[in-house]
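User: Can you predict the 3D structure for this chain?
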Amino acid sequence: MMEGRRDEVDPSDPALGGAAGPAEPAYDPNLPAHYMYGYREPTARMVFDGKRMRKAISRKTIDYNAPITQAVLGRATDRDFRDFAELQPHYSWMRQLLPPSSLDYNPSDCVCTRFVHASINKVRCPINCLAWSPEGRRVITGASSGEFTLWNGMQFNFETILQAHEDAVRCMVWTHNGNWMVTGDNRGVIKYWQTNMNNVKAFTAHTEPLRDVSFCASDLKFASCSDEGNIKIWDFARCKEESSLLGHGWDVKSVSWHPYSSMLISGSKDHNIKVWDVRTAKILATLHAHTNTVYRVRWNQNGNWFVSASRDHLLKLFDIRMMKELMCFRGHKREVATVAWHPIHEDLFASAGFEGSIFFWFTGNEEPAGEAIGAHDSSVWDLAWHPVGHILVSCSNDYTTKFWCRNRPGDSLRDKYNSLRSADGSAPDRRSPNASFVTELTAADASAPAVAAAANVTWIPGQVASTAIPGIAPAPARVPAPVMVPAPVPVVTPPAATPPYVAWDARQQQPLPLPPAAFAYGLAPLPPQVLVPPMPMPPPQMPQQAYGQRQYRPY
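Assistant: Here is the predicted structure, written as structure tokens:
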């Protein structure tokens, strides 16, 4: 709709009161603009209560209420994944999206590589840490200027800012019950905050910059570490130090308390990971797994695994039951600065480092499950998942806080963070699931009608696509293997010009129908179809319905 006075309205538009529309009253400057049919006040002159109004802008909104409502409605009838409809690559299937808690069998649904929004303060400074509020309504970021900035968790707009510390904020963590937040800064000061951002307590815990804070399962105690080289255990209610854990030979960069036990793990600049017994203040084990500074260690929610991120470009997964390394994840080209486990799926975690990219990993696969290449222009200092698990937020040295969501059905992922460029400027890895559906295909793959339609090429039955896809090297057409047929029918080999994914019907001497687009979306070549001979007639004593058919019984 056009903005302006009545004489600026398109005369051919009946919706705006043009020549084809009804007659309009003359402009009266004494009446408000909304009283005049067809009249639109210019944006720069719109005022309310004597004040000029800002121009309305559209904001991206990620609302998790619709998927949760869908899950609640189906909870009474759906048994498990057998009753869930598999999403198809089309926007019409967005209504069938479910929250991550309902898709516990499919953690790949929570690989958040879709860029949503970038938030930046008016006073630009590096963002060192961040945390979601317990209810997931807003994100709290800690800057190097000592300020807290609160961003809306659905529309990602600015809410408020306050001067929290006198020096750079280094860490922040919420208690498990969500009633208190504890933060630390470069001066070693720890502060307690309520949910309304009211500071109720502040005391000096360390003489060097404080690096990390972690709460025990009962929230009665918490651990803090700093560049002093020791770990301190604090009584949360009395704000008093109970014990000090000594054993590292250099700065302690990270600490993490076991989800339900009295064990503690810490990573240090001395390249070591130590496992502590908090009750006795003794070292249970020392793991010499990295060759450089260990920046971050984090327990998994199952209490059996923990992951470490190091300056040697590696991430390593350990099992506390065997006290040994399970897997090593390689993919970062520079130092890995942070790692965060998914709150719902225990086998999914995200990592980021100095190259500015974000990687997503599964515990059973050494290759990354997803990548956001060049997510930030500088080092990424912290990552935090939304409590629901559908959004990931990152903060960086480039002064920005960025929000990432999971991909919707039908998204092509043709953006600068996925398929257009890599960190070194090269094309994306074909093994990466983040690359676009069309760009992952060769010219021979585009001979299927559904694929050809997505790639804007011409498909002729029995021929390979005649129009090459831009940016894709041509590849020779694949010839399907000979099809097995019943003995009475002779074996016929299909011609070489038969498009891929098409089986040859030996009886009718013509191609069989193509599979649906959902199979083409999987980017995996389908096996040749096998013609199954007709089932013989049942014995006369056996009922016809019970022979050769599966009997379904209600649960």
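The mean pLDDT is 75. Residues 65-74 form the longest helix (10 residues).
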